[in-house]
Amino acid sequence: MEETLKILVVDDDEVDRMAVRRALTKACVRMELTEVGDGNDAISALENHSYDCVLLDDCLLDQDGLNIIHKLRSSEIKVPVVILTNQGDEQIAVELMKAGATDYLSKSRVTSETLAQILRNAIRLHRAEMKAALANQQLRESHEELLQKNQELEKQRQQIQLQNLKLLEASRLKSQFLATISHELRTPMNAIIGFSQILLRPKFGQLTHQQADMVERILNNSKHLLILLNEVLDFSKLEAEQLELKPEIFDLPKVINTTVGEIRSLAEAKKLSLLVQTNLQNTLVFNDPVRVRQILLNLLSNAVKFTESGGIWVEVKEIPNQVIIIVRDTGIGISPRDFKHIFEAFRQVDQSTTRKYPGTGLGLAIINSLVRMMGGKILLESQLGVGSMFKIELPRQITSPTIAVSTPALNLDGDEIFYSAQNSHQSPSQSSKAPIGYPHIKL
User: Fold this and answer.
1) Any idea what DSSP says for residue 259?
2) What distance in Å separates the CA atoms of residue 51 and residue 53, rounded to the nearest whole number?
3) What pLDDT, in 10s, does the model give residues 411-437?
4) How far is CA 300 from the centre of its chain?
5) pTM as predicted
6) What fold characterizes domain 248-395?
């Protein structure tokens, strides 16, 4: 159904108003028509009622069409205005359109077809402009809202950045504090260990059974505390990126067997079997033997700590350019939900103060950091109540910009190991083979 249009005709000539009325009626335009004879009545009608279109005479007795259009715009009355001009007033109509009129039509050309067409075109154009204006207004509001949100986000970003700087400084101070405390405590702890060992030597006098037992307790607890202090010190250095690897060529099974020997008494005390299986064609690796021992010692210590019955197995094997160290146990196992946290610093499955298994929670975090420094990776498989398996994959030959080796070595086949010229200030003429750099092990 065609909508009913509300139309206002403004003309001081009754004959002209009648002609407009007849043309619209003949064109079968559904409308509510209002007619006024002067500009003041037109302004009053537009201020109090809503119209779809205004048909305005360009020259009224009380005021001209330009003045009426200015009043409409100043009052922010938005309505399409079609100017009805007399013969020869087309230039005036053009000026009125520049001022805001929608279209114009000469009264001499008013027919049902032309008037209805211009009326509908003016209404469609006005509605399209209103939609565009509304869209632009919404766009401006959205833009302003977006700018405001961006400003808020920028403030939040600055606050977060400031907070991050504070956290980094707090972390640095914490690491520095831990390193200082650990270093300061190691000196008296080493003294306690040394004097305890002296007291237990027979040449310094015989102790009663009770006295020897107390000194042994002092010694064992001091060693345990020293291990904890070393863990905190190593972690502080790792966190501050101050720990450097000191690689050298060494026999991997020898280091592994020595480390297993250190932990064997603890396993035997809990009646646990401890087996080592080595399957290496070339036993030499280029790495930091102290840190490799530390990795294995931490894994074995954890295996003994968390295993009440059964056994522990250490397996060493090789794949091209890599060596693999596997430690298995029949301990309490780890829940899958704890896998993602197990290598976090100070993290233990049981965080309570009454936990059964003591420790700093730094062992696995240190292992993970050391393995990453060596360019390797650590894999975990575990099942609650069944046991755990830690698999360490390390390159047979690690590389580091801090490595410097000055003397050649021999591999198992007796071939000489040459050195590359990386990171060296020595000229080729200063060496019969090659300048200081990284050794290349023949596999």
Assistant:
1) H
2) 6
3) 333 333 333 323 333 333 333 333 333
4) 35
5) 0.49
6) Heat Shock Protein 90 (3.30.565)
